[in-house]
């Protein structure tokens, strides 16, 4: 299977701090690739670097056979990469409808169909269509953030910790939605909730101290208790 | 257009605008009409500031520069030519072109950086224009300024009032439509989360520069109206006070509301007039700027959304978070 995204020895700084030392991984088309690792390992920085929100200081980021490491964030987004950040990035003073519409790159029949599909996936968004984003609950905000990335035909979705701070019942719902998206889009997921990650992920990479140190198929990891304990602290 | 789709607030604004059209028939006193005209002019100026601060989160310390550019352009062109409608149109055109060029350059140079760079550059440029206006006496009359003649039809205060009112109505409804358009929503998105807007595929710098140019051009038009209402120009149009007035009008009225700056303009202009009249009662009223300072501090502490913002938040679900983030 061909790779949609490929990172080779990517390095990045945040101010004077060297956060990413050597990040290398591949995201095959049509799969869900999960980045795992402890807090502070560099997972979020990796996603931000792919999106151009942090500038890579070394290595290469190849998307669809094209180097995107030096592109500006808006160009990267225009190339078909959607991003759901850890803090959701909801526009508090825009309504749910405006939050979704502002993200739409075009208003053709296909996008309208996608919008209807997304609203079917998250009926709460339809219900609170005119409510300001800032007044939604944590779970609703997360749904809105994911829906916003999905109203456009993005080839790749970067999703950062979608289960963070959510009640288990909402996590189930979010997970279901990602499962459905998986059928149409390639996903790079950062997730601390191993149960969730293992259910939807096809392959994994473990990041530790800014380096990719291990990778494999998700099924292998599920059966390797020693590895899970060593790198993820899961007994 | 289906009338049923027009918002209730729009009907209220239309009714209020129609009321303002009959004011000249109710108040025949020139000073009262002049004061209301000043409210209209500074209302337009403050709305242009609101577009920057309230909708896009861009802070400017030198917005007076555009007001002054408009005022001087119109005055100089009218002074150098016959007092005809054509020279007035040429003056407006010159004002708009210079304001657009200066705001474009200021925007493209600084808006890619953090917002205080734009604030500092506009402050510096406004200072530069002030010095130029003082020193280039052959053209500007220096610190003492100069008077000029208006075309015949503009000498009637009733006509001037109508021109100011029509301008206000056009800019208010035009900007209202603009801020409710998809482009306006992108501006709000930029104000709330620049990185997020960029990662949705919007080139934030372009949008900020567009807003900078629109705000600059509208402010320059307000400057043109101001100088036409006075028939006199001096360097005070470039003073920091003019920017502070716009800031005060916007904050008191309510940032990000458009109607707020108009309310703020009314309050500030009338307060200025009445407080100056009270100077005989106590010397403190001569120093009305001190009272403004107190009002400003109280407004920021107790009414961070301003008058219109507070009212809107009672009737709608407007979220306060994010408006003062920058």
From TrEMBL, chain A:
InterPro entries: AAA+_ATPase, ABC_transporter-like_ATP-bd, ABC_transporter-like_CS, BCAA_Transport_ATP-bd_LivF, P-loop_NTPase. GO terms for molecular function: ATP binding; ATP hydrolysis activity; branched-chain amino acid transmembrane transporter activity. Keywords: Amino-acid transport, ATP-binding, Nucleotide-binding, Transport. Pfam families: ABC_tran. CDD domains: ABC_TM1139_LivF_branched. Residues 5-234 form the ABC transporter domain. Transmembrane segments: none annotated. It comes from the Bacteria. GO terms for biological process: L-amino acid transport. Belongs to the ABC transporter superfamily. This is Amino acid/amide ABC transporter ATP-binding protein 2, HAAT family. The lineage of its organism: Bacteria, Bacillati, Bacillota, Bacilli, Bacillales.
From TrEMBL, chain B:
The keyword Transmembrane helix applies. Coiled coil: none annotated. Its main location: membrane. It is a multi-pass membrane protein. Pfam families: BPD_transp_2. It is found in: Cell membrane. The chain crosses the membrane at residues 10-27, 33-52, 59-78, 84-110, 117-138, 158-175, 205-227, 247-268, 289-311. The keyword Transmembrane helix applies. Keywords: Cell membrane, Membrane, Transmembrane, Transmembrane helix. PANTHER family: ABC TRANSPORTER ATP-BINDING PROTEIN, HIGH-AFFINITY BRANCHED-CHAIN AMINO ACID TRANSPORT SYSTEM PERMEASE. This is Amino acid/amide ABC transporter membrane protein 2, HAAT family.
């Amino acid at each position: 299977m061909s790779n949609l995204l490929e990172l080779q020895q990517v390095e990045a700084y945040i101010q004077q701090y060297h956060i990413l030392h050597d990040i290398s991984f591949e995201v095959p088309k049509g799969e869900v690739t999960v980045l795992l690792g402890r807090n502070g390992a560099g997972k979020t920085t990796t996603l931000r670097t792919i999106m151009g929100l942090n500038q890579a200081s070394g290595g290469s980021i190849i998307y669809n056979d094209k180097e995107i490491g030096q592109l500006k964030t808006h160009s990267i987004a225009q190339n078909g990469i959607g991003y759901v950040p850890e803090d959701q990035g909801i526009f508090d003073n825009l309504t749910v409808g405006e939050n979704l519409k502002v993200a739409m790159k075009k208003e053709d029949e296909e996008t309208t169909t996608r919008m209807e599909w997304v609203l079917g996936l998250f009926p709460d968004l339809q219900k609170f269509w005119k409510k300001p984003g800032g007044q939604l609950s944590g779970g609703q905000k997360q749904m809105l953030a994911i829906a916003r990335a999905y109203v456009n035909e993005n080839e790749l979705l970067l999703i950062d910790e979608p289960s963070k701070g959510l009640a288990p019942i909402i996590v189930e719902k979010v997970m279901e939605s990602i499962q459905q998206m998986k059928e149409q889009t390639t996903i790079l997921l950062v997730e601390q909730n191993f149960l969730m990650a293992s259910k939807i992920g096809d392959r994994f990479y473990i990041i530790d101290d800014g380096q990719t140190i291990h990778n494999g198929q998700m099924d292998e990891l599920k059966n390797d208790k020693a590895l899970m304990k060593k790198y993820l602290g899961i007994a | 257009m289906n009338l049923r789709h027009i918002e209730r607030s729009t009907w209220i604004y239309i009714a209020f605008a129609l009321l303002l059209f009959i004011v000249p028939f109710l108040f025949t006193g020139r000073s009262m009409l002049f004061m209301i005209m000043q409210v209209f002019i500074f209302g337009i100026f403050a709305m242009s500031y609101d577009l920057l601060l309230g909708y896009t989160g861009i802070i400017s310390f030198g917005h007076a520069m555009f007001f002054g550019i408009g005022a001087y352009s119109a005055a100089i062109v009218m002074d150098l030519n016959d007092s005809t409608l054509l020279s007035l149109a040429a003056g407006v055109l010159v004002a708009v072109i210079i304001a657009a060029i200066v705001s474009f350059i200021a925007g493209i140079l600084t808006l890619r950086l953090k917002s205080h760079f734009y604030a500092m550059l506009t402050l510096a440029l406004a200072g530069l224009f002030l010095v130029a206006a003082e020193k280039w006496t052959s053209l500007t009359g220096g610190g003492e300024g100069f008077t000029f003649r208006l075309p015949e039809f503009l000498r009637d205060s009733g006509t001037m009032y109508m021109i100011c009112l029509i301008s206000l109505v056009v800019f208010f409804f035009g900007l209202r439509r603009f801020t409710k358009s998809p482009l306006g929503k992108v501006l709000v998105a930029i104000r709330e989360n620049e990185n997020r807007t960029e990662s949705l595929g919007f080139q934030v710098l372009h949008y900020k520069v567009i807003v900078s140019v629109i705000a600059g051009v509208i402010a320059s038009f307000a400057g043109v109206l101001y100088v036409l209402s006075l028939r006199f120009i001096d360097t005070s149009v470039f003073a920091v006070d003019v920017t502070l007035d716009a800031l005060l009008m916007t904050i008191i009225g309510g940032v990000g509301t458009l109607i707020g700056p108009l309310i703020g303009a009314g309050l500030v202009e009338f307060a200025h007039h009445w407080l100056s009249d009270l100077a005989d009662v106590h010397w403190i009223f001569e120093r009305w700027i001190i009272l403004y300072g107190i009002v400003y501090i109280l407004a920021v502490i107790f009414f961070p959304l301003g008058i219109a913002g507070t009212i809107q938040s009672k009737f709608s679900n407007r979220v306060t978070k994010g408006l003062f983030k920058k």
